[in-house]
């Protein structure tokens, strides 16, 4: 069995073919990196979207929580992740208050 490979020079990647838009990943992200975006082709009407990759702290919470193994986080040896800032925490709180959806 081959391990998933994260594309180079990105902290987080999503295999949209595996994602079922459950929003679990967005709900566990402490830095507001992931959110759900409207998608009329999705069964649930949305899809996961990387909205702020520069604030990714490499905690792997989203990758570990994804029931469909659709998310990959870069290795800490291969990527220099951000620190968790108050701005990122605020972004995560705003997303939570909006049910993890991107505001129009």
What's the SSE blueprint?
Layout: E1 12-14, H1 24-28, E2 34-38, E3 46-50, H2 61-65, E4 71-73, H3 86-97
Antiparallel strand pairs: 1-4, 2-3
Give a written overview of the molecule:
By secondary structure, this protein is α+β, with helices and mostly antiparallel strands. The chain has one domain: Alpha-Beta Plaits, CATH 3.30.70. Helix content is 21%, strand content 15%. It has three helices and four strands; from the N terminus they run βαββαβα. Strands 1-4 form a two-stranded antiparallel sheet. The radius of gyration is 13 Å and the shape is globular. The N and C termini lie far apart (41 Å). The mean pLDDT is 88.
**Judging by the overall fold, what is the CATH architecture?**
2-Layer Sandwich
Give the number of helices.
3
Give the % helix.
10-25%
Number of domains: 1
Sheet-strand content, in percent, reads: 15-25%
Order of helices and strands: EHEEHEH
User: Describe the biggest sheet?
Assistant: 2 strands, antiparallel
Mean pLDDT: 88
- Strand order, sheet with most strands: 1-4
Return the CATH class: Alpha Beta
Could you state the oligomeric state of the chains shown? single chain
Query: Low-confidence spans: pLDDT under 50, at least 5 residues?
Result: none
* Cα end-to-end separation: 41 Å
Please tell me what the overall shape is: globular
* C-alpha Rg (nearest Å): 13 Å
């Amino acid at each position: 069995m081959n391990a998933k490979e994260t594309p180079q020079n990105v902290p987080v990647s999503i295999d949209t073919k595996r994602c079922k838009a459950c929003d679990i990943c967005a709900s566990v992200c402490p830095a507001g990196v992931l959110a759900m975006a409207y998608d009329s082709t999705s069964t649930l009407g949305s899809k996961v979207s990387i909205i702020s990759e520069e604030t990714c702290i490499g905690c792997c919470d989203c990758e570990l929580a994804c029931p469909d193994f659709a998310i990959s986080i870069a290795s800490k040896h291969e990527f220099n992740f951000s620190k968790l800032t108050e701005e990122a925490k605020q972004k995560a709180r705003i997303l939570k208050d909006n049910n993890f959806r991107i505001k129009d």
